[in-house]
Amino acid sequence: MANMNSFMPRIYLLVVWLTAAGPAVTEVQGDRQPFESPGDVTEACVAIRHVPDGIYSDADTAAEQALCDIDFYSGSVALCPKTFSTSPGTLVYDLASGAYAGRGPDFENDHCHERRIIKRDVAGDPVSYKMTMNTPATSATFAPAALLYYHFSRYFDTYVDVPVSVWRSMDRNVHYERVVQTGLDVSASGGSPMNRAGWETLAQGAKDPTTYRPTSELYTDDGRQIFGILLRSGGRRYGAEINGTRHSGWGAGQNRDFQETAPFRALREEGTLSSAIAAGISAAKQDPDLAKAMRTDPSPLQMMFWMTELAEIVLLDFIFSQQDRVGNIDYADYWYWIKDGKVEKAIARSAEPPPDAAGFAPLKIRRSIINDNDAGGRIPYANFAKTTGMVANLRHFRAETYIQLQQLAQDFEAAGPLYQWLWSSFGISERQVAQIVKNTRQASRILRESCEAGRLRFSLDPHGLLLQEKVVDSNVSCDVT
Question: 253: buried, middle or exposed (CB in 10 Å: 19+, 13-18, 0-12)?
Fold first, then answer.
């Protein structure tokens, strides 16, 4: 987990450690790819089975396969400890080309003591291998949260980009030998105390998995394997224009600061979308730091995208009790244009639009990405989207998302196909499933009450604005069936 301030309340972390029980969990379900470790342990990569009626792209399926094709023992893969930031993890480097091609052990010996992401002698950016880590001395991370965010984002067909993730286990002893020992060595010479504590915890668990509680959140039932998730992050970190000023410090304060940004202020404004956008920008500009971060007034289309993405982030964070969203929203720039009545887009790799967009008046839009979703899903985590009233404050929403949410809540209530998928796919406990169900029910009720009171407009439709060049509110029955 990134950007957790060092003054995070230790009382909270002690509660996590003492109250978190270790209930039986279901085994993850999906397409399973086996690997054999040098210690004759059969590891697995699992692409979690897709949510019923979810919208997955061909690129999603290809990314799942690419992640599950990573063989830690091929010689063309290097595993280095992540010794920066607050939580321990593993950086998985592709050595298919470059000076270390096929020489994974040499790369690990030469480079894994560097407290940074290695850019030279590798074939692209590393894949992240993240594991659960919650003790009184560490930051809070829960690996299955990334899986939940990925698949639920495809259920809601979100505009905000959530990276593909897969479940992956690894021989506990090999992980210790190749990663943990180096993590201990490097973290001993500086860096975050929480990162150091994480490596110490992993070292203890390598000797005796039962020293980590609940053991089932970090180790397989037989104790021979550690597990986590693989994902490939992308984008760059937003400044205060989206992540907020964070003047009020970690916790509820910075989550209220987050709601003062221009797009979030617009989401909170009554009236038409156009008037809300103008009011949101005007209010944000009264804060010198927000005004500086924005530089210029965002276009109505940019604001439409940001508002839609933030509303989706808030909903997902509410459902999964995310406690560390603020400061962890990223972006990538895209070119958008209309061709033959359809919206087309391409990643903006330079200041000039791609040849395919020539003649179609392309527009550059900054799109949001949430890569860091690992402080959600567990019972003790602080649900700041709930406690600071983010969902209750929304006055603009996307019609399709509202309908999907109401139908999800109804399915959960009836223990329908979506509930059965949630319960049986992710390897999470009965209590964790119950919390997701409860939060979903609460979010659906809050938005339905706002709708019935006439406080909620279904005005968010970025592609509709692109195609029609105007905003038309959707008519949606508040009581979706």
Answer: middle
User: Is 342 part of a structural domain of the chain?
Assistant: no
Query: What dihedral do alpha carbons 231, 94, 226, 433 form, nearest 10°?
Result: 10
| pLDDT, tens digit, 9 for 90 and up, residues 255-301 | 999 999 999 999 999 999 999 999 999 999 999 999 999 999 999 99
The CA distances from residue 441 to 10, 205, 464, in Å, are 31, 37, 29
For 357-416, how does the pLDDT look when each residue is reduced to its tens digit (9 = 90+)? 989 999 999 999 999 999 999 999 999 999 999 999 999 999 999 999 999 999 999 999
Task: Identify the residue whose tokens are 């063309």.
Answer: 76
Last residue of a domain, one of 231, 265, 281: 231
Count of Cβ atoms closer than 10 Å to residue 271 Cβ: 13
Find out whether the peptide bond into 214 is cis, omega within 30 degrees of 0. Answer: yes
Distance (Å, rounded) from C-alpha 405 to C-alpha 423?
18
- Domain membership of residue 481 (yes or no) is no
Domains of the chain: total: 2
Pair (85, 151) in one structural domain:
yes
Give residue 275's region: left, alpha or beta (phi > 0; psi -120 to 50).
alpha
